[in-house]
Design goal:
- This protein has 2 domains: about 1-215, P-loop containing nucleotide triphosphate hydrolases (Rossmann fold, 3-Layer(aba) Sandwich); about 220-280, no CATH class.
- The protein is an alpha/beta fold.
- Strand 9 and strand 10 form a beta hairpin.
- Helix 4 packs antiparallel against helix 5 (about 130-140).
- The radius of gyration is 21 Å and the shape is elongated.
- The protein contains 10 helices and 15 strands.
- The chain starts with a strand and ends with a strand.
Amino acid sequence: MLRVENLNKSYTSFQLKNISFEIPEGYIVGFLGKNGAGKTTTIKTMLNIVHPDNGKVEFFGKDFYSNETEIKNQIGFMFGAFDYFPKSKIKTITESYSSFFTEWDDAVYRKYLKKFQIDENKRITELSAGMKVKYGVALALSHNAKLLILDEPTSGLDPIARDELLDIFQNIIQDGKKSILFSTHITSDLDKCADYILIIKDGEIIANSTKDDLINNHAIISGKVEDLTNELKDRMVNVKISRFNFKGLIERDKLKNSDNLVIEKPNLEDIMIFYNMEKDNEEN
């Protein structure tokens, strides 16, 4: 459904470095990374909103840059809360937005307006941060898109609204014909609904696998400081050290039978934190 190969983009102080990944049909792919890691830049570059230096992007088996108009009719995308045209009424914005899509479905759009309790006579400035996100999602879901690309779609939503939105995502892919890529730094969202996980750090993809494999192939280990040898540290992804104890992340195939440690299963937040820490972290 989507294939990105060796995508690069250089700025003075930041660089996307050989970004490569695939999104299969019928899955939710979570794009995880801290703020500033390169999530939004990756999405904008692969959509040609920001021109890439080089690389290849294919949607539905077609080169994106040669078929941009056709492909954009088949994808829905949203960047955070909807903050465009703040003085305009929602109704006016939708009339303009819908004209760009050949398969705009007004019945679907109105279903989401009702579900999200959005008054189309309000202006964007009258919406809360959460309602702006919901409006953007309603637009993205209303033209029969095969692939949804959403940048921080749950930002600004309260826990109940976020849970509702994640349920909608899961329902969308049930027919096995649609997929979703959404970026976030909220790991709990991906714990609930993602099938695959991409993790980006400083413009590079550092993890790309199914969520279950990513979690099952890592372990949290902890013990006393005197048990933390240099040889053990070299095997670990990263470690937090306090006065008496340590806790760290390790790939399970690097564990040894001789390790006298407490071993626990990590969650996505653990994995993200330890991969993004500076090495030799030590707490006071």
